[in-house]
Write a structure and sequence with these properties.
Layout (H helix, E strand, L loop, with lengths): L1 H18 L4 H21 L1 H6 L4 H24 L3 H24 L1 E3 L2 E7 L4 E4 H19 L7 H19 L4 H17 L4 H24 L1 E2 L4 E2 L11 H12 L8 H13 L23 H34 L3 H25 L18 H37 L1
Antiparallel strand pairs: 1-2, 2-3, 4-5
Helix pairs in contact: 2-4, 2-12, 4-14, 5-6, 5-7, 6-7, 6-8, 6-13, 7-8, 8-13, 9-10, 11-12, 12-13, 12-14, 13-14
Length: 415
Amino acid sequence: MASEKIDMKQYSLGSITSKTMGDKVVWAIVVLLTMMSLLAVYSSTGTLAYKMSRSTESYLFKQFGFITVGIAIIYFAHLVNYTVYSKVSQLLFIISIPLLIYTLFFGTNLNDANRWIRLPIINLTFQTSDLAKLALFMYLSRQLSKRQETIKDFKNGFLPVILPIVVICALIAPANLSTALLTGATGLVLLFIGRASLKHIGGVIVIAAIPVVMLIGFAKMYYNESDHKAEPLPKILTKGRVGTWIGRVQTFMYADKTETSYQIQQAKIAIAKGGWMGLGPGNSEARNFLPHPYSDFIYSIIIEEYGLMGGAVVLMIYLLFFYRCIRIMKKCPYAFGAFLSLGLSFTLVVQGMANMAVNVNLVPVTGVTLPLVSMGGSSFLFTCLAIGIILSVARNVESIEGNTAEEKSNEIVSK
């Protein structure tokens, strides 16, 4: 009986392994980033644990729980045939619009922004923009695959694919401008790859650049360079988060002439202390001073503890992930799968690059997290779902390649 039980366990483990398909490198990247996440989150939550009167171990176990649920999401999502997501995308896109509207007016206010809604039963805050981004790129991939013959036509091809991007970005922007800009830029890149007219894409970029240029203009207009001080803004520019956006642009533009923001100061100190090889795991000092070291500025903690070499490794992992997703896209014989894998991977990599750029002061401060590394939440789980969908496309590609190879071998045998 004991031997039978062992055999059943081996069979069960073997069945799970056999069903785990898709790009093995992407699976390895998921494991690497989640392991880094455990180390970095455990190291950076000391101050948060003190404020909340909890132990750092509790946040370690919480992160481990999110990782466990996230990997389960990846596993079950990759088992679904990716063509199912084409049908689901329409429903998700329709649902995301009223959710974003509800969030703007009735969402939970955290850090002076209505970006979240609180789920009543489990008492978990849920960032609706995460669902909206996923739904948008799934829906956009569906539309692009169906409109390849008419994509050059403005009315019948371009308008139906640009309107979803405009609607989602317009609803995200009031509470989270950086996410809206990144989402819009990723959408335009996907349209470019989908053979949309450069003239139409250029027109959208010009129109979208107008408010950005105005924002930069107001930042320059209401800043006294001689005194190195920001001047009071008129009331019309203090509504919503416009004043915050202008302030961040001013801080970024004039960082060489006045003190940089406290966040960037502490991030630079962390990076400087890290040097080439870092202070070692758990030896971060900036975690006690840096705001949100476990989410928005976790990359600074990684560099402080593991040095510039560790930061470079994280960067290379994201680039490798993007390369493997491009490889999946090229091998996929169907347009929807190709657009889906590329769109979802590009938005994750762009988000990661934006987070790293903020940490090293290449762009103004934003509120984006480092995918699969920052402390778990709804964003972490939606990232896992996106990776699961990408692996679903990869699994289908592997299946097609396997069938093709089998057919060729059968032909050789018959000859």
